[in-house]
Please model this.
Amino acid sequence: MARDKEYNRREFINRGARFTLGLSLAGVGVAAAVNAGSEKYLWQIDPFKCTQCGRCATDCVLSPSAVKCVHAYDICGYCDLCGGYFKPGVTDLDTGAEKQLCPAAAIERKFIEEPYFEYIIDEELCIGCAKCVKGCSAFGNGSLHLQIRHDICVNCNECSIARVCPSDAISRVPASEPYMIKGDFTANESGEAGA
Amino acid sequence: MIRKNYRLGFLVLMVFAFLALNAQQRFPKPEFESGYEQPNTTTPEPRTAGMEVFDVIVLFGVMALATWLILKKRSRRGVLWLSVFTLLYFGFYRNGCICPIGSIQNVTLALFDPGYKISITVLLFFLLPLVFALFYGRTFCAAACPLGAIQDLVVIRPISVSSWVRKTLSFIPHIYIGLAILFAATGTDFIICRYDPFVGIFRTDGPYLMIGLGIAFLVLGMFFARPYCRVFCPYSVLLGFMSHFSKKHITITPSECINCKLCANSCPFDAIEAPIDEKVRTESTVRKNLRNYVIFGLLVPVWIFAGGFAVSKAHVFLSKAHPDVYLSELLIAQPELREDTENLDIQAFLESGKSMDQLVEEASVIRSKFRTGGWYLGGYLGLVLGIMLMNQFVLRKRKDYIPHKRDCFSCGRCMDYCPVGEQSGDRKSGIVKAKQ
Amino acid sequence: MQISGIFTLVVAALLLINFVQLKKYEPLESQTLNTLVAQLEEDPRNEQLKEEIRDFDMMVRKAYFTSTWQVRTGALLMLIGGVLFAGSLKVYTDLRRRIGVPDTAKEDFLKARMTAWKWLLATGILVLGMAFFAAFSSTNYLENYYPEAIAGTGPSTMDETIEVIEIVDPADTSASGALAGAIQDTATGEPGQDTGADDSAQAGDGQTTAAQQAVPVEKIHGLAEFKKHHNSFRGPMALGVSYHKNIPTSWDGGAGTNVAWKVAISKPGYNSPVIWGDKLFLAGADEEARIVSCYDRHSGQLLWEKKADNIPGSPSTMPKVTDDTGLSAPTAVVDGYRVYAIFATGDVIAFDFEGNRVWARNLGVPQNHYGHSSSLLVWNGKVIVQYDTGKSGRMLALDTKTGASVWDISRDNHISWASPILVDYAGKIQVVTNTDPTVGGYDVETGEEIWKVDVMMGEVGPSCAYADGLVYANNEYASLVAINPEPGAAVQWESYDYLSEAASPVAYNGLLYLATSYGVLVCYDAKAGEQVWEMDFGTTLYSSPMVVDGKLYIMGNDGVMHIVKADRSGTLIGEPVLGEPSYAIPAFAGGKIYIRGSESLYCIGE
Model:
């Protein structure tokens, strides 16, 4: 009989605690749900904030990085002397390895018509080092820029590149608009003037 | 001011000079005459949102199945195969990312940062295992957690560890979850994800630290079963709370315990509590324990205050983990680093056009958050420690071998050892084996 | 079982080695390759070297991709091995499992508890101790920030009040000097007083860098204060007139006669020295760096030299410029608190007098086939930048404290190389610029166009001159015009006989002086436009004439200074020699002349 009594008391405490825990759990759930959306979020680079520091190549949990250079053809000038393709100071414009900026030789240069050339990024080879982006931004239209490729990215809970990005260029974006492909110059101009 | 007018002939614009001088958008898109078609910039699609929902369904399914296997079917084998599935699906296929352990931080951030929108699937990942634990014990740990599964599968020769070691180590997850919440709430870092030891293995890729840590944990786990779960896992704190008061929980025996002691060594996690010898409960011992219990009970507020005071004092140290605080302190302490072109963070800050005032202001706000957070964290740790100390003087009557509801992972190993059968005889494999 | 174990171990070891290699050496950043490329730069026609580089590059990349492949496959193999190993171990132990051994050596329940609470207590104390240790071993640098910021705000917070009182400077002979007086400060002390205050205020402050961001309210210096210094291109307001007295008329730079000091200049530039108080500022640039240097005006000692680098938008390679313009042709400007400089890259930068960077920005790399050469001006808290490039005509005013654009106007004119001047006319300060085709005046406060006349053509180099209500503009192959700077402006008189290419004209005391690049100095009647006299030096000259102490000082490219009486007589006073070429405009202060030669900076005087 005594044992039953003790058992009942324990069971009562348990029940009370369970109820309290359940309630607090529901509370947390509701409080978080207020701020919840059905939208999934992904990591992406804002090319206008990017300073081409090179950490995308080294700090991704994947190797090679899930960050690749993409080419916004819309704003490409199809330059013969491409700042993203050639090392600075190159005079003979051909595809010799000693002239290429890309360490992985991931940019293909294709003649279209005089004097225009098309530049195509081979993402299989690209390591996301941003060397070409730096060159293109400094001397060209800035059509080459970095993006996180979502077919490769494992979408870590906290992006390890975002944590070390010096210019806070990487942020969560809604999965419905997973890319920030350049193509609008006004953003760039105002960004520059405000700097 | 000084320049020379060249003859007009010299003004033929060399393509080079022109290109080099031109900055952004200087080169209009050419009008192609050769019928060139511009390729589109590709944007490979991410995993569809539907798949996320599928993940939640799989999680729910696995936990429901595990609960059924443990409480109804009492099949260790089933749990084992289920954990293999979990390892393959949540581990190697989903790369260990989207996991309830890390979701603690997302939930925290959602509570503290109104700008952060938590995805409903992540919230469900956080809540579902806890709800299950509240009703059925830690069935999530048994079969639905890829981190638990990989460790569970490498348990080879578990060594029994003294209870005082276990009890001391069990304080660590409290520190871990406390820090994780503090860092997540202040938007500093997601330390749980950063130091997750197994994602590197799941991805078969990752930084040194991750992979090294993972291998170390696995090797350790051969002898000290589930080291991450028992000593570090921050989610285990929450699961433990829930499971402690769970409505139903795994039992070693399907009916009455016959105190055959066969199961005592079966648990690789030392989570089975032996009966307390009635001889121990002498009157003097009980009285002494009661006295100590009261003393330590009275000490709890002291612990809470001391903890809060100490940790809030340490807020300066803790807040240095935040990149903004770190950067602003670096710039104040070593202004000469402004000249250091190698320091990307400082250079990027200088280029950003953000003023030092602004940066210091932001850093101060973060630091003051850490001060407040420090009180909560320290107070919580003090409370936990105080209660743990009190619990050392609780002498409950216990006649049977029963799993410790908080620490038990519901893996079901012990069930195999129990000779007591239900109505059907095929559940007596343990005793059959023992007789061989 | 053993096989899978050994297999796993071997693969793990191999993988680790490869992994270390991959992470540590970054094979794509091969040192050898870089060296080879550097060699090629020196010898661009070496075909064999090129081949070598190409082969090596191929090899390096092959090695990289092979090792990444190895890591991938290795990791996979290891995983498989690990799984097999774990599986077989499991089977093995299962077979050997000690089954149903009853509980034998169970620890003493009470004893274990006693140990446990002690250890728990120890853990608690340890954690507390660690927290306290962390608390006391870390410094809160953020708290150090504000006190220093206050100390570092320098002169203005030290000065008890900030007064702006309308006082017309007696030295200000300009008819409508009221406005200039309105914004001038009340300081009546020696030139350089502010600098002195600056020095003493910051002397005890070790962290001005962090502090200088706190922007104090500053007195804004007007023309009256500018006249005590030599704060911009062609003196105060860029009008070509200096107000200093007792300027030497004879020296010999080569022999050292009458040379107070001479120092070597670290980086080339066609810009001229500017002076505020005891400090003299110069800019310079080459392919490696763009710098601003500060010298002690009295001793020639280099006080500081700072790079203008890490500016967002600044190009990593220098724009192509010609040798006779260079990367640092525009002259810097000083406002008593900071020095501002612009470079051919489009970088504008501000340093305080201690050499701390206050702000910097890039205005977009100018499209300019010689190199940007328009000098800066400063007025009422604004740095005026004439930024006419091949892309567009543009002029901006930047906030002196932050560099933010106060106004930014685009104009219809073509690229130009001339510098703006400040004109005080009808109660308004105008920025007057000379471009192809527009000569125009703009409100310095808003950038609004007040007047314009489309009369100029060609590649405009000379800046305007102004005196007594008339603006003078000219350019080679165009014309020399005098314009009334007001709405409805029109050409008052014009002349085609002598036109300057680089040197800017100067108007003084009813006369207009103009120097052509082939060395003829011409004097016109400023009101009527009639030629008074001409003088042929038979030399090439790009530097603009300066009027000081009633004399004209004109530097020839050969380093010979031509000193002529600034009156209707046109008497040649002397032709002292510097001993090296010079293209810059001399700066005058405290009875001394400061001349930038091609190699050295000279201070002429006792």
